[in-house]
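Table S2 (text version). Query chain:
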Amino acid sequence: MEKEIAKDLLSIKAVFLRPNEPFTWASGIKSPIYCDNRLTLSDVHVREDVENGLAEIIRREYPEAEVLMGTSTAGIAHAAITATILGLPMGYVRSGAKDHGRGNQIEGRLEKGQKVVVVEDLISTAGSCIEVAEVLREAGAEVLGVVSIFTYSMQKGLDRLAVANLKNVSLCNLDTLVEVAAQEGYIADSWKERILNFRNNPSDESWIK
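Corresponding structure-token output:
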């Protein structure tokens, strides 16, 4: 599944690998990769692969799941479609409580004690999904873990997930993506090491040549 999703993401240009012309993240870090998983929603075939893949992971890794909760905003559509496949209720968690109406931060019905899986599109340092999990836990939910489309597998993200006692299972990861990208001719084989060097030490720009 990891390789098929990697091929899907590359085919619709949801992922750009550009070591010679790095992107600049909001944090200021220069990166050889840019990932926009929102594009998966616009391609019927890829969307089907992604949502069926997320459903398969939930069935296998979180069989007790009672509710899916998407991260706002990128995880909402994926949570809704996957919940439909699984026949489960869903909702989503705002980045902050509304300043009007009922002041909700959790949208959708959630009962105390319900077993929840968080649906995220991308894991880098894992901050957003951890924040969502904390909000859900404070509301009395039992958070089983996270499912996501793609992870960079950055050590900072892995460490933060461990501290938060939060399991994540992704459809695809950076290691598989660069391997497939080289095999399919999207990047030169020599670029693989440079991209992975960035992942292993994002603040070191020695990979830029």
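Notes on Table S2: The radius of gyration is 17 Å. The CA atoms of residues 154 and 199 lie 6 Å apart.
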